[in-house]
Amino acid sequence: MKNNNVDFSRLPAHIAITMDGNGRWAKRRFLARQAGHAAGAQNLRKISEQMNTDGFKILTVYAFSTENWKRSDDEVAYLMNLMRDYINQYIEDSKKNNIRINVIGDKSRLDTDLRESIEYLKRLTLNNNGMTLNLAINYGGRDEITRAAKHAATLAATGAINPESIDEKLISSYLDTAEFPDPDLHIRTGGDIRISNFMLWQFAYSELFYIKKFWPDFSYNDLLEIVADFQKRDRRFGS
Length: 239
Ligand code: IPE
Ligand code: IPE
Ligand code: MG
Description:
Layout: E1 14-18, H1 22-28, H2 33-53, E2 58-65, H3 73-93, E3 100-104, H4 112-125, E4 132-139, H5 141-157, H6 168-174, E5 185-188, E6 207-210, H7 220-232
Parallel strand pairs: 1-2, 1-5, 2-4, 3-4, 5-6
Helix pairs in contact: 1-2, 2-3, 3-4, 5-6
The chain binds 3-methylbut-3-enyl trihydrogen diphosphate (2 copies) and magnesium ion (MG).
C-alpha cells in the first residue's frame, strides 16, 4: 500500500500491538461483545497480511492476557474458539501464505486440542520467510519473567549454570521472545494508556503510541501513519 510518509527501506524490525476496544466497538453498534472480537480477529488477519506484503518482519499481538480468564465463562469460551478458528484457518491457508506463526505465553492452561493445533501450525510455518506473527495467548509479562526466573533457578540449583553468570542477556534468552529483538514500538488501540501486563521486560526502550480508535476500526493506513511518526522520533536509549 502506498503511503508517502513512510520510508519502506527502514521499517521498524518489530511492532507490538495491544488490540484493545473490541467490546466497546460492539457496544456502540448495539452488538454483543463477541461480535467485536470476531471483527477484531478479521482485522488482524487483514492488517498482518498487508504488513507481510509490504515487508514488515515481526508483529506481536496481544490476543489474550493471563488476566483475561477473569471474564465471563461465555466470553472466555468464545475467545478460545475464535483463536482455535484463527489457527485452523492458518493451517488450511499455510501453503499460499508465507507468514510464520509463533505463539508466546503459557500454553499449559490451554485446551489440549488448541495446544496441539498451535504446535502443528508453528512447525508447518517454521520455514516461511515472510513476516513472523507472534500471537500472545495466555500471555502476561510478569508470568513470563517469573517462568524465566524459575528456569534460571532450576539450572542454578542443579549446577548447570553459575548464579554469577545470570545477567540480562541470559534472562532474555529464557523469555518466550528469546529469538526476537525487543519491539521498536508498542501500539495500543482503544484509548486506554496502560500496559496491562504486556511485554514488561521487552518494552524497556519501545516507543509508545496510544490511540483512541477501537481495534476493529484500526486500519493499515493508521498503522503506516504511526510508523511514519515513529521514523521521526529520536531514540537515545539513555545516551
Ligand atoms: C480486546 O478487547 C480483546 C481482548 C482483551 C481479548 P476488549 O474485549 O478488552 O474490549 P474493551 O476494552 O472491553 O472495549
Ligand atoms: C489488554 O486488554 C489485553 C488484550 C488486549 C488481550 P484488556 O482489556 O484486558 O486490559 P485492561 O483490562 O483494560 O487493562
Ligand atoms: Mg479491553
